[in-house]
Amino acid sequence: MFDEILGLPAHPLIIHFAVVLTPLLVGVAVVYALLPRWRANTAWALVLLSLAAPGAVFAARQSGESLKEARFGSAEGELATRISAHESFATPLLLSVLGLTVAALLLVYATSPARASVGRDRFGRPVTLVLTALTVVLAVVAGYFVFQAGDSGARAVWGM
């Protein structure tokens, strides 16, 4: 499933979804967390990105494994080192995006407009503050790993 798309290796095509959706998720999550007045306008985008980004990262990871097995299983030397460095960011990226997804969705639920009109958060102010901080921290972590994965992938391909 993750090998080819229309005869082309799937990984170079699929990674673009992860490289676009993950930074969008990071940005929208930070805006939602830190700018309460924007929450009504960004909640829908945060929910959609929270559903799409982990799927894109998972597909990129799986297609990368398929590409490595199919074309680079016997790679040695500097190329193998670059591929290994790139591959080392796949699982931390997936886990950080999944963590960000959970934190962001809980934050949206805790601050949903139905409760905001009453003037109180669903779980109380302390829990909302913890969810806000956790969302921002996980956004930074996911942003770091998506950058590292993309940079190491470009270096692996282009030999920079």
TrEMBL record:
Record's keyword terms, sorted: Membrane, Transmembrane, Transmembrane helix
Chain ranges of the DUF2231 domain: 7-159
Matching Pfam families: DUF2231
Transmembrane regions: 13-35, 42-60, 89-111, 123-147
Coiled coil start-end: none
The protein's name: DUF2231 domain-containing protein
Organism, as annotated: Nonomuraea terrae
Taxonomic path: Bacteria, Bacillati, Actinomycetota, Actinomycetes, Streptosporangiales
